[in-house]
Design brief:
Helix content: 55-70%
Number of helices: 6
Strand order of the largest sheet: 1-2
CATH architecture: Up-down Bundle
Radius of gyration: 17 Å
Shape: elongated
Largest sheet: 2 strands, antiparallel
CATH topology: Four Helix Bundle (Hemerythrin (Met), subunit A)
CATH superfamily: dinb family like domain
Low-confidence stretches: 1-16
């Protein structure tokens, strides 16, 4: 059983090696922008079911989830590339998660947060992206790489892109 666990972990790492982090984030962001272009303000309150989030709530969640990631990316960047300056991020006020943000406000917030993410990943070599470093998260110290954190964020965002597509009745 231990051998099987090791094999699964190695396989995940091999697959991750072939994924371009910025490419994965960029592709998801392109899909998200296309969704926003196909959406109108009156559709932001649509829900797949009464118990699910509205399109607006999903978009606000995506914005704040990515912004939440920035301190972790900064810490990892300091660990693996101490010679590189930490770019300024987070200088803009985002719509609150309970707000009635309009489509233009949501577009602006998503773009602002993504630009910050891109600045945090810029100038890093493939080696630095893959280098594990200690990251304290919810009281636990994890050995993670920038690549792992960013790909997890990309997967999370893709889940919500698909959720919005289902809610709006748009085929991926």
């Amino acid at each position: 059983m231990t051998t099987q666990r090791r094999w699964e972990q190695v396989e995940v790492n091999i697959i991750a090696e072939f994924v371009n982090v910025q490419g994965a984030l960029g592709q998801n962001f392109d899909e998200l922008r296309a969704l926003l272009d196909a959406c109108s303000d009156d559709r932001l309150e649509e829900r797949l079911t009464p118990s699910e989030w509205s399109v607006r709530e999903i978009l606000l969640h995506v914005v704040h989830s990515e912004r939440w990631l920035h301190p972790q990316l900064m810490l990892l960047r300091r660990e693996v590339a101490p010679q590189l300056a930490i770019p300024q991020v987070g200088g803009v006020t985002l719509p609150d998660t309970e707000s009635d943000a309009s489509l233009p406000q949501l577009r602006w917030a998503l773009t602002s947060v993504r630009e910050d993410t891109e600045r945090l990943l810029a100038d890093l070599s493939d080696h630095q992206l893959r280098e594990p470093a200690n990251l304290e998260l919810d009281g636990e110290v994890l050995d993670m790489s920038l690549r792992t954190v960013a790909l997890t964020a990309a997967d999370h965002q893709l889940f919500h892109v698909r959720q919005i597509q289902r809610t709006l009745g748009i085929a991926p």
